[in-house]
Write a structure and sequence with these properties.
By secondary structure, the protein is of the alpha/beta class. It folds into 4 domains: about 1-50, no CATH class; about 105-130, no CATH class; about 140-290, OB fold (Dihydrolipoamide Acetyltransferase, E2P) (Beta Barrel), CATH 2.40.50; about 305-445, Vaccinia Virus protein VP39 (Rossmann fold). The protein has helices spanning about 1-10, 25-35, 75-80, 90-110, 180-195, 235-250, 310-325, 340-345, 360-375, 385-395, 415-425, 440-445; strands spanning about 140-145, 155-160, 170, 210-220, 225-230, 265-270, 280-285, 290-295, 295-300, 330-335, 355-360, 380-385, 405, 430-435. Strands 3-2-1-4-5-6-7 form a 7-stranded mixed β-sheet. A hairpin with an 8-residue loop joins β1 and β2. The two termini are about 50 Å apart. This is tRNA (uracil(54)-C(5))-methyltransferase. Keywords: Methyltransferase, S-adenosyl-L-methionine, Transferase. It catalyses: uridine(54) in tRNA + S-adenosyl-L-methionine = 5-methyluridine(54) in tRNA + S-adenosyl-L-homocysteine + H(+). Belongs to the class I-like SAM-binding methyltransferase superfamily. RNA M5U methyltransferase family.
Length: about 450
């Protein structure tokens, strides 16, 4: 009754719900609008409470959030966060990864009834396959902008700490062993540019600022694509164009020319992450794509295309997938969450047909282009959500004798409708599940 009276008093016509919540910009405005005992009944009251200031937020251990011991350098802290196994030799790293997958299989085994394999595992576990390249192998790196150890808010690098712990520091990435020198060079150049720019960095959206992170993509030929992310705030288009021009001049004829960029993109967005369809990537300079060779095939890479960050490691992965399929005859491959078509195109030889399913428009366009680039005509790529496309597609394949499903979802795993469709399709004789984190949401798909 009191809530209804308050609605009338404030001139609000709410929908019928079991509970109402009224929000005011300040506590004083609440006290001003809600008058005691008038129209709301004698139990209604609004007053200013004495609010105590919260002490520094503590971690679960009860200790105040802080940085690691000062006897560890900033570079070591960053390496521990980005490449946590860097202190081990490569053979030890492979063993750590093997043991991690063993624990995942043990967990899976405990969740599957009436299953007891060798060594407490539900299936054989092979040794971890090594990467041919272990230093400077990344073909894509994203660098953030925030306050550095010296307090400079225009520092480009990677984060140490967390927003929750209120201890974020942006540290230079020059010492990271997994990052190629070209990526570090572009990051240093971008830092120099924004430090001379009159615009502030955008650290927290509500605090203003414009310059955000930068992504660097390279191929084995040395072509380099840079994508600069920018928050427009309330700048006019003409003002943004002026800063775009300064950015191009810096990387083409200024100090940044040493980076030898082949592509320079610019995306202005008020969102943390958005696709090309939501906020188009603007090509400010150079060619629109870079290309990479994988297992003798050529792949086109657009600014937001998914591509395995270790190209040589990806070749090991795709060979392994090809070996796991082990099919003969007129079989059909279903490449679910196919991205730019890398898996489907590398395993299509010997298959009667490959059908890829992908949500992102640009990725589907890249996949179709990659098929044409390589003269492959037995692959087709469908755009849409896998949980919608796959159940509609499978009935049309009932005449097929042998289907192979290869799924490569994000960390969120497969939608339950995709899992159900695969399990209910008798023609699917083999399933290859590619996961970067099998002990995460993928486990839900397994069981």
């Amino acid at each position: 009754m009191a809530a209804a009276s308050l609605s009338r008093l404030l001139g609000i016509v709410p929908q019928l719900i079991s509970r109402q919540l009224f929000c005011f910009h300040t506590s004083q405005r609440c006290c001003t609008n809600v008058t005691f005992g008038q129209s709301l009944g004698p139990t209604t009251a609004a007053k200013q409470e004495n609010v105590r200031k919260h002490p520094a937020k503590k971690q679960k251990s009860g200790k105040t959030a802080k940085f690691p011991s000062t006897n560890v350098t900033w570079e070591e802290r960053l390496a521990d966060a980005v490449t946590p196994l860097w202190r081990m030799n490569y053979e030890e790293q492979l063993q750590v990864k093997y043991e991690a997958q063993k624990r995942t299989l043990q967990l899976l085994t405990t969740r599957i009834t009436n299953c007891s394999g060798t060594d407490g595992l539900c299936c054989p576990l092979h040794s971890t396959l090594p990467s041919p390249v272990t230093v400077g192998y990344r073909n894509k790196s994203t660098f953030s902008v925030n306050r550095g150890p010296d307090g400079n808010p225009k520092t480009v690098g990677h984060y140490i700490g967390t927003g929750k712990g209120r201890n974020i520091v942006c540290t230079h990435s020059d010492h990271l062993v997994n990052m190629p020198e070209k990526h570090k060079q572009v990051a240093r150049g971008y830092e120099q540019f924004i430090r001379h720019s009159p615009l502030d960095p955008c650290i927290l959206f509500h605090e203003g600022g414009h310059w955000r992170e930068i992504t660097v993509r390279t191929n084995r030929k040395g072509d380099t694509m840079a994508i600069v992310y920018f928050h427009p705030q309330d700048l006019e288009k003409e003002e943004i164009s002026k800063h775009q021009k300064s950015l191009v001049e810096y990387f083409t004829t200024g100090p940044g020319a040493v980076c030898e960029l082949t592509s320079l993109y610019f995306q202005e967005s008020a969102m943390t992450r958005c696709l090309h369809e939501e906020s188009p990537y603007q090509l400010l300079y150079g060619v629109p794509y870079i290309f990479e060779e994988v297992l003798g095939l050529t792949f086109r890479i657009s600014p937001d295309a998914f591509f395995q960050v270790n190209t040589e490691g990806a070749e090991v992965l795709y060979r392994t997938v090809r070996d796991l399929i082990r099919a003969s005859g007129d079989y059909i491959v279903l490449d679910v969450c196919c991205g730019t078509g890398a898996v489907g195109l590398t395993v299509c030889q010997g298959a009667a047909r490959v059908i890829g399913i992908e949500l992102i428009d640009q990725a589907v366009e890249d996949a179709q282009c990659n098929a044409v680039l390589n003269g492959i005509d037995n692959c087709e790529f469908l755009k849409g959500k896998a949980e919608i496309v796959l159940p509609e597609l499978l009935p049309s394949l009932e005449g097929a004798k042998f289907l192979v499903a290869v799924v490569n979802p994000s960390r969120a795993g497969l939608h339950y409708r995709v899992v159900r469709a695969i399990r209910n399709c008798e023609q699917i004789r083999r399933l290859v599940y590619i996961s970067c984190k099998p002990d995460g949401e993928a486990m839900r798909n397994f069981v």
